[in-house]
Amino acid sequence: MRKLRHEEIPRPDPKTARALTGHPVSVLLDNVRSIYNVGAMFRASDAALVEKVYLTGITGTPENRKLHKTALGAQDTVRWEYQADPLPVAQALKRKGYTIGVLEITDCPTPTTDVAESFFPLCLVVGNELHGVRDSLVAEADVAFEIPQFGAKQSLNVAVAYGIALFDIVRAYRRSAAPEGRDSKETPHG
C-alpha cells in the first residue's frame, strides 16, 4: 500500500463535475450560521454527488470568501441556489415527488441507517447549530432522520452530522440502485 499523490487521485474538473448526474438527493440548509460549517457541507455535498443544495434563511452563500476555506473548491462544483424562506422550497420539492426528511431529534425517529428505497428522490433538511430545524419544516416533513449515538451527548456538530447522514442516505440509494444481489461499490466518477 502507498498513499496516492494529489495528482494521482482520479477526479473530474469543475466543469465536468457540474455536468455529472447527481444522486436523487437534494439538500436544504436552513439558518446554518457558521460559514465554515456551510463550506464543509458543500465539500460533503460534492463528495456525495448531491443534485442541488438550497441555502435559506441566514445560511451563507459561496459569495462569502470564508466559505472557500472549508469548501476547497466544492463551491464551484455543487449546484446551489439561495431562497430566503425555506418553506416554499420544501413544498415545491414535495409537489415534485421528493420525500422531505429533516435531520432532527423527534418523537418519531428513523435512523439514518434505515433509509427506505421509497424515500427517493429525497430532500435532506438540516437546520441551525443551536435550534435545529425550524418547526414549520418539521411539520412539512415526511420523515425525521436521527443518527444513532451512544455517548452522553445528544448531538454532533451540524457539518459532521450532515456528512454522516448524507453518506448513510447515499449508500442506501446506491444499494437499492445496484443490480440484484450486488452492492454498488463503483465510484460515481468511475
Explain what the structure shows.
By secondary structure, this protein is an alpha/beta fold. The protein has helices spanning 14-19, 35-48, 65-71, 86-95, 135-140, 158-177; strands at residues 23-30, 50-56, 80-83, 99-103, 109-111, 122-126, 143-146. It has a single domain (21-177), classed as SPOUT methyltransferase, trefoil knot domain (Alpha/beta knot). It has a seven-stranded parallel beta sheet with strand order 3-2-1-6-4-7-5. Strand 2, helix 3 (65-71) and strand 3 form a beta-alpha-beta unit. The model is unreliable at 181-190 (pLDDT under 50).
Which features would summarize this protein structure in a list?
single chain; 190 residues; alpha/beta; 7-stranded parallel sheet; 6 helices; 33% helix; globular
